[in-house]
Amino acid sequence: MHQPEPSSSSEIIEYRIAQRIRQLRAAQELTLKGLSDLTGLSKGLLSKIENCNVSPPIGTLSKLATALSVPISEFFETDDSDQRVVFFPKSKRQIVRGRRTSLNYEYELLVTGRRRRGMQPMIVSIDGRTYRFGLQDHPGEQFIFMLEGEMKYIIGGKTYVVKPGDCLYSDSRVPHGPKLGKNQKARYLVVHTGT
């Protein structure tokens, strides 16, 4: 498969994520089928992710991280000189736009690094004009704090109307996802745990 040539900073980050997933899979001597069996994701989707034809959403990255026994932050580059404290200035944050996925949102990792951490904080921004609703599930738990806008957030069979200042805490193994109307935008902090 032909790998698209990265041109923007977002595409470069997506390309690095794809490369890192492939490297980790190869280092563990896993085939696409082996990784598919561990994640529940199809071989075709995994191939598209590794060839940077699909931008994996957060839930998919979480499944891959769990299957490869690494934190999500392993997919992002950084210098981890001090393992006990991470200062990550706003100017160095990486924003990833999910343009090659139907979910079509962007997320900004607030702390990167290859060090194993118990949680992964990020800011998610969604525009209802381009976002397509879809539920995800992955290992761990998640905490959401709404920063801007309004959205419905589905967890299992329940719908929550989330406004600025509202919080949600849930088991990430329960199918979940934001649902926005065409004229809605949402920006929220989400913190995932790995297991």
Topology:
Layout: H1 9-27, H2 32-39, H3 43-50, H4 58-67, E1 94-97, E2 106-109, E3 119-127, E4 141-149, E5 151-155, E6 158-162, E7 167-171, E8 176-179, E9 185-193
Antiparallel strand pairs: 1-2, 2-3, 3-9, 4-7, 4-9, 5-6, 5-8
Key phrases:
195 residues; alpha+beta; 434 Repressor (Amino-terminal Domain); Jelly Rolls; 2 domains; 6-stranded antiparallel beta sheet; 28% strand; globular
What do we call the CATH homologous superfamily of the largest domain? Jelly Rolls
Q: Which structural category do the helix and sheet elements fall into?
A: alpha+beta
Q: Biggest β-sheet: count, sense, barrel?
A: 6 strands, antiparallel
Please, how many helices? 4
Helical amount: 10-25%
Quick one: how many beta strands?
Answer: 9
pLDDT average, as an integer? 80
Q: Report, as a whole number of angstroms, the end-to-end distance.
A: 33 Å
CATH class group of the largest domain: Mainly Beta
